[in-house]
Write a structure and sequence with these properties.
Blueprint (H helix, E strand, L loop, with lengths): L13 H17 L32 E2 L3 E3 L4 E3 L11 E8 L7 H20 L2 H4 L2 E5 L3 H5 L4 E7 L15
Antiparallel strand pairs: 1-4, 2-3, 4-6, 5-6
Length: 170
């Protein structure tokens, strides 16, 4: 079999491949992949304090949002939200600290121990329940005004609540 010039399939020249690569890079730049989801917030005893707007409106067993900036409120707020409407947190207990001078490390240790004990009685463990908890502490300013209450809060790491999580005490 003999081949003529008309029978040969033209091969792209290397410079054409360069333009294809440039076009692909530009397409990726023009249509970037979806933004990665932000990591779940680390919830510890500084995540929300007694001075966070809206937290003093939350009662035992109620669900609420994570703190977010609100232009209308002029700062960071938490809002009541029914548990069934994809809330972020739920109050499950309150502790009362003894009067005395402001001592944040001692208050935090008291709060973690008290909220942890109550958590373990209700859900047995973090691993078994898939839940976690954190305390909401008074601040030096609210302590000076007589605030001695600590709110214990349960949440689902990396997710939201779709119902009340608070079981009856065993």
């Amino acid at each position: 079999m003999t081949w003529t010039a008309a029978d040969r399939v033209p091969h792209p020249r290397p410079r054409h491949r360069g333009w294809a690569l440039v076009a692909a890079v530009l397409a990726v730049a023009a249509f970037p992949a979806a933004e990665p989801r932000p990591a779940a917030p680390h919830k510890d005893d500084t995540f929300i304090t007694a001075q966070t707007t809206g937290i003093l409106n939350i009662e035992g067993g109620e669900c609420f949002t994570d703190p977010a900036h609100s232009r209308r409120a002029g700062g960071v707020v938490v809002l009541y939200r029914p548990c069934e409407e994809r809330a972020d947190n739920q109050s499950y207990a309150f502790l009362h600290a003894a009067d005395g001078p402001w001592d944040r490390p001692a208050l935090a240790a008291f709060a973690w121990a008290g909220c942890g004990g109550d958590f373990d009685r209700r859900w047995t463990s973090r691993a078994a329940s898939g839940l976690d908890y954190y305390p909401i502490l008074p601040t030096a300013e609210t302590w000076a005004d007589g605030d001695r209450d600590i709110m214990c809060v349960v949440y689902r790491p990396g997710g939201q609540l779709s119902r009340s999580l608070v079981p009856l005490l065993r």
